[in-house]
From TrEMBL:
Organism: Bacteroides reticulotermitis
Name assigned to this protein: Fumarate hydratase subunit beta
Keywords: Lyase
GO molecular function: fumarate hydratase activity
Domain Fe-S hydro-lyase tartrate dehydratase beta-type catalytic: 12-177
Listed EC numbers: 4.2.1.2
Amino acid sequence: MNEKKIITSPFHDDTIKSLKAGEMVYLSGVVYTGRDAAHKRMCESLKAGMPMPFDFQGAAIYYAGPCPPKPGKPIGSVGPTTSGRMDLYAPALMDKGLKVMIGKGLRDTEVKNSIVKHGGIYFAAIGGAAALMGKCVESAEVIAYEDLGTEAVRRLVVKELPVIVAIDSMGNDMYTEGRKQYATK
């Protein structure tokens, strides 16, 4: 039986390079959230020479817009957003040091090329299980763009957030590899 693989932020190059497409891992530590509106603002800030809301080095961004928390909980449901919505912005953020992204669905060729160029990784989170994902969050705080509501950038502390390596640092893509596998049957 395979041992449960837990990786902790900040995420280091050696750890990222050791992960292979299709592998299940559990993330612990700090993860930031942000969706399209936050990504757009971050890219506008980059162009204007303004600071980012968090240091990208070793950080992970989770494409999610969490629901408000129930009393006594740090966060509500926190399911992944379709990653393709961030494809326009991801390469620019990766050029500035971002390497780890979490979401759901396919990425375009430019993002895959940026992942390989920067030795990054893209994790697929479990869609449709937002309440389960929310139970992995130990704390949450808005750190930027509070006016965006659920799309504000949040700093989450997670424990064993389940994800699958969708695109590894070599560009192996579980989505396209899976389609090729089924096309030959």
